[in-house]
Amino acid sequence: MKRKMIITSAVIVSTIGVALFGYLLIIMLGNYVIDEKKLVLDSASTLVDEKGNVISSLFVENREPVSIDEVPEHVQEAFVAVEDKRFYEHHGIDVQAIGRALYKDLLSGSKVEGGSTITQQLAKNLFLSNEKTLLRKTKEVVISINLENRYSKEKLLEMYMNQVYFGHGMYGIQAAANYYFNKNVKDLSVSEGALLAALPKAPSTYSPILNPEKSKERRDVVLSLMEQQDLLTPEEVVRAQGKTLGLSIKETIKEPWLAPYIDLVMEEAEQKYAISNEELMRGGYTIVVPLNEATQKTAYEMFKDGQYFPGTDNKAQGAFVLLDNQTGGVLAAIGGRDYVQKGYNRVNKQRQPGSTFKPLAVYGPAMEEDKFTPYSLLKDEPLSYGSYSPRNYDGKYEKEVTMFDALIHSKNAAAVWTMNEIGIETGKEYLKKNGLSIEDSGLALSLGGLKNGVSPLKLANAYRTFAKMGAYNSAYFIKEIKNQEKEIIAKHEKKSTQVFSQQTAWNMTRMLEGVVNEGTAKAGSYLGDLAGKTGTTSYPGKDGAVMDAWFVGYTPEVTGSIWMGYDQTTKDQYLVEGSRYPTRLFKDILTKTHPETNLAFEVPDGVKDLEKPIRLASVDSLSASYSLRAFSLITVSLRWDKQEDERVIYRIYEKDGSKEKLIGEVEGEGEYDIPYANVFNDAKYKVVPYNTQTKKEGPGSQFIEPSLFTSRR
């Protein structure tokens, strides 16, 4: 007897020892199988504009984690009632539930009931694969027990409710409440909480959208279970079961016009702030962007209109970007006419800029270096520079032309001559300050003839330097990024560089206004102040074929660019028209989205405004006559038709025999008197207009002799 007691005691001690050893082993194994990083649930990031309005969400799993304190008690009870009624009693494994499940399985001959606790479901969903093996089940038990030891019941329930899938792409109780009822979880009623608790078992089968009848039946089962577990009174259950599903579906709006912009946001987050696309979609960040959604959508819709894209077929492409002048924030970005998410985003793809490069590489530097002024005369001749022989697109040359006119009429010969005068390296130095690092070292870069080209984004931002009175700073898509605790973890830093003086920038603005008002950018209509430049590059494989067509311009508020062309130009696919098409589209977008046409460019303090160009017309209506005047005896009176421009100077020349001399001048007048004239000499007179800007004379009249009567020649 004594021996039996000893043996029994030994068995009991051994059993306890084995159990204790097993429990300790489970605890130790937990440190190896629990990866706490997996407890950090994926959370959707949110794009908001600068006013805090939500634009879109970025997510792998659409989830917005909430604290258990925000979940009403009746909602917590609904989940516990249907998923794990002994949740607050067991330590991860519910032995009673497992036994009951096995018993029912044996009776039916198949698996009819599960015995998993909420903790086991959390362990399975966060740490394990879906394989059906004994080892996986063992790991599930080990993880569940260890989770119970590490975390409170409230924390475990919180993790479960934030992790579980509710169907229709919604993960977590907050996302589900917002989607199905358009409210926050803290505002859920008893019946609404029961409906959500009914979904995790089979989200598709019990979907209130796909199967409303089954969904209501399942909800009512949950309510009945809550009554059985004394969580609700019979009266409360009757009232709750009598309610309809009460859905208020918040549909996820498909916004294709946002795709190119969002992709550029994600690209900037990765390149500038080292936040990967995956992390951005999982980390629950708030990303503040300068997007103007109305402009983005309008531009997207207008890019669909084929009338703006003059290609040999309907596959001509384009890109558009619009920047805020003061901040550099990107207000809109269209990466193509048929852009798809993570597609070929032409906003930052390099293309040949053509004549849009002239202000940046040639004329801006020429003025800043004090080599030339807007009304300096430039050579406009078909010259050759070694093997390079630039030609004007229209084949016309004027020998000399002002910088102003060379720019508005896009004279290639004058631009190349000017760059040759200031030096290629000088032009490249200013390009680099303007965010454009160019490898090319030939005179062709003055006309935008580059090996690699420039992107619409960088070209627009370079022009913004003129709009911002010569100051350059980088454009940006992300103003700031906040983490889930609303702490700013990344922010755009404004670092400004003065590339051009305010005077140079202002002179360029006035000249580029001339391009729009009377030059190559006259196409289309925009009633506000607009300065800009066109650019066109030809496809060498076919006469008349255009490869790249551009307009880059700015108003007092915004700067933007439009590129048009084919991704690959061929002899069969090319643009049949040039820059007037992007010019017209740009103006139409501004007219629809920025109608504040009363805004005007304002001359900065301390800056001298640029006079409008003086245009000289020939003097061909001169008359000369003698007359008697008191005290001046005989006077020669010269009369001619003056120009409307009062700034024109008229020079008076006298010719006596073979000698010719300047005897006087008058500004803005059409008459001149020469007193004390000698009627017996052979003097003749002519009038010549003079331009004070260029210091050049225009076509004058012929020499004529005075007569006693007015005569005209």
UniProtKB/TrEMBL annotation:
<keyword id="KW-0121">Carboxypeptidase</keyword>
<dbReference type="GO" id="GO:0008658">
    <property type="term" value="F:penicillin binding"/>
</dbReference>
<keyword id="KW-0573">Peptidoglycan synthesis</keyword>
<dbReference type="GO" id="GO:0009252">
    <property type="term" value="P:peptidoglycan biosynthetic process"/>
</dbReference>
<feature type="domain" description="Glycosyl transferase family 51">
    <location>
        <begin position="52"/>
        <end position="226"/>
    </location>
</feature>
<dbReference type="InterPro" id="IPR012338">
    <property type="entry name" value="Beta-lactam/transpept-like"/>
</dbReference>
<keyword id="KW-0472">Membrane</keyword>
<dbReference type="InterPro" id="IPR036950">
    <property type="entry name" value="PBP_transglycosylase"/>
</dbReference>
<feature type="region of interest" description="Disordered">
    <location>
        <begin position="694"/>
        <end position="713"/>
    </location>
</feature>
<dbReference type="Pfam" id="PF00912">
    <property type="entry name" value="Transgly"/>
</dbReference>
<keyword id="KW-1133">Transmembrane helix</keyword>
<dbReference type="Pfam" id="PF00905">
    <property type="entry name" value="Transpeptidase"/>
</dbReference>
<protein>
    <submittedName>
        <fullName>PBP1A family penicillin-binding protein</fullName>
    </submittedName>
</protein>
<dbReference type="GO" id="GO:0008360">
    <property type="term" value="P:regulation of cell shape"/>
</dbReference>
<dbReference type="InterPro" id="IPR023346">
    <property type="entry name" value="Lysozyme-like_dom_sf"/>
</dbReference>
<dbReference type="InterPro" id="IPR001460">
    <property type="entry name" value="PCN-bd_Tpept"/>
</dbReference>
<keyword id="KW-0511">Multifunctional enzyme</keyword>
<feature type="domain" description="Penicillin-binding protein transpeptidase">
    <location>
        <begin position="318"/>
        <end position="590"/>
    </location>
</feature>
<keyword id="KW-0808">Transferase</keyword>
<keyword id="KW-0961">Cell wall biogenesis/degradation</keyword>
<comment type="similarity">
    <text>In the C-terminal section; belongs to the transpeptidase family.</text>
</comment>
<feature type="transmembrane region" description="Helical">
    <location>
        <begin position="12"/>
        <end position="34"/>
    </location>
</feature>
<dbReference type="InterPro" id="IPR050396">
    <property type="entry name" value="Glycosyltr_51/Transpeptidase"/>
</dbReference>
<dbReference type="GO" id="GO:0030288">
    <property type="term" value="C:outer membrane-bounded periplasmic space"/>
</dbReference>
<dbReference type="InterPro" id="IPR001264">
    <property type="entry name" value="Glyco_trans_51"/>
</dbReference>
<dbReference type="GO" id="GO:0006508">
    <property type="term" value="P:proteolysis"/>
</dbReference>
<keyword id="KW-0328">Glycosyltransferase</keyword>
<dbReference type="GO" id="GO:0009002">
    <property type="term" value="F:serine-type D-Ala-D-Ala carboxypeptidase activity"/>
</dbReference>
<keyword id="KW-0812">Transmembrane</keyword>
<dbReference type="GO" id="GO:0071555">
    <property type="term" value="P:cell wall organization"/>
</dbReference>
<keyword id="KW-1003">Cell membrane</keyword>
<keyword id="KW-0378">Hydrolase</keyword>
<dbReference type="GO" id="GO:0008955">
    <property type="term" value="F:peptidoglycan glycosyltransferase activity"/>
</dbReference>
<keyword id="KW-0133">Cell shape</keyword>
<comment type="similarity">
    <text>In the N-terminal section; belongs to the glycosyltransferase 51 family.</text>
</comment>
<keyword id="KW-0645">Protease</keyword>
